[in-house]
Specification:
It is built from 18 helices and 15 strands. By secondary structure, the protein is an alpha+beta fold. The protein has 3 domains: 166 residues, no CATH class; 149 residues, no CATH class; 113 residues, no CATH class. Helix 2 runs parallel beside helix 5 and helix 12 runs parallel beside helix 17. The structure holds zinc ion. Zinc ion binds next to strand 9 and helix 5.
Amino acid sequence: MPNRVTETTKWVFRGEQQTGYPWLDVGRVVLAEYLGTRPVTRSEIQQTLDSLLIARTGNKGYYYNQQTNRLEPYDKVNWVPPADIFIRIPGRSTGKRVIVHGRDYRTAPPALTVSLGAGRNGTCDACGTKARVRDAGAAMMPLLVNPSKFANFYPSLRRGFQLCLPCTAAGYAAFAGCLHVARGSTSHLVLFHGNPSQMAMVYRLVVQPYRHMPERLVAFRGAHTEETVLALLLRVFAHQELTTDAPEPALQTLGALLGLVPAEPALVQPLRLIVLTAERRTRGFDVHRVYEYESPAGLYAIYRRWLEALHRIRDDPRSRIERAFAQFVDRAANDTRYRNEIARAVLEARDPLPWIESFLFDVALRANRPLETGTEEIFAIYANEVLEMSEALQRTIGSFGWRLGRAAHAQREFGVLYSLRNARTPEQYLRVLNDAQFRLSLTIPSLLISLHEGERIEGTPWLRVKTLLCISAMNAYLRAKDNSVQQHTEGEGTDE
Ligand SMILES: [Zn+2]
């Protein structure tokens, strides 16, 4: 690598040269796709980046043409999302200012271009090359925005970070190499990091073709990170063995690369999925989260059990599953926090039930909206697989919960459900059930009141039994209240 950069200096991009920094590695793969492995000049690199990151907005501007002495239109351009959030380089005009009909114009249209910078002699922090380096900024490495917050992710960020020209170019190119899922002012940048040939495949098959229709890759769009990861995984899962409806081969391949099917010999390690969530501000942006998810295979095994179970009772089980997760939105407040917490628990193989309980009491009750058909089956399977709750216990909870909810509705005894929800100790739980027995003339199944060692019922902590009972009862109550359930479950989009 020469130390003096001139226009005749040439660089070679090889996708297989990895830095270990996911953002830059993705960018290198993108550049290798466009530039090949032949030596290229700085202006070729610049042109490639401009073509990837800058596009016409569809609007016209005017400049004053000195040859014709007239105002001439030009196509306005801007940074392509998501680069526009991070790159704040404005268009510059080389023309002079003139005043025509009392308004300011330039004598040449403004030009927009990425800045690769001149740099000074040093060592590149990403690839270790001794070369001209420049300080990296958020424009080419968004993770640098808050070094202290993300220092664990990129340990060397504690001191400044310097990049050579190829790494700078890769930093810019990565904006074109990630999937961009947006909701309002929030953007999720999804990166797939693995070996170069895997990343090149994902770029060709998924990122590039879906760049302008990322909504097809997610079951729903939310403002938070985990719900978006789950929304993407649900879509990838849905397309794994789809043969009847048109499958998306790209998503099948992505599933294989994520390790959903037993690894082929060539596939040493599945791709890692990394999501950066940022929010556009009037001036600049905030990076909220960097999230990494490595093991969707376990969740996919559960997904297949959901499919199997729903196949037996419902049509179109794939969209049933997507809707079951999509529904946890407080529409009045446009708030997807519950959905995100449920998604987070499911991704981390923890207990999502307390959030479903809260959603039912705090949101669904107000909106008069029972759970989507199939939801209880889905979470029953989850509780069985992940939380090791026995099927016998679940059946008992389900059928008693249903009777409890119906009776509370018929006898206008909603207070029983509230007391059950608020039970904080096993004693309170037993008292509420005892109370329900008398007030609603219900027989309590003995299993639900048989507390054993460690305050467990059939090996399950009493609180989890209470929570699931609350969910069943409340859902039955809402169903009884709302006889037009069908209208709710049909005809509502999941993309919110
Ligand atoms: Zn470098």
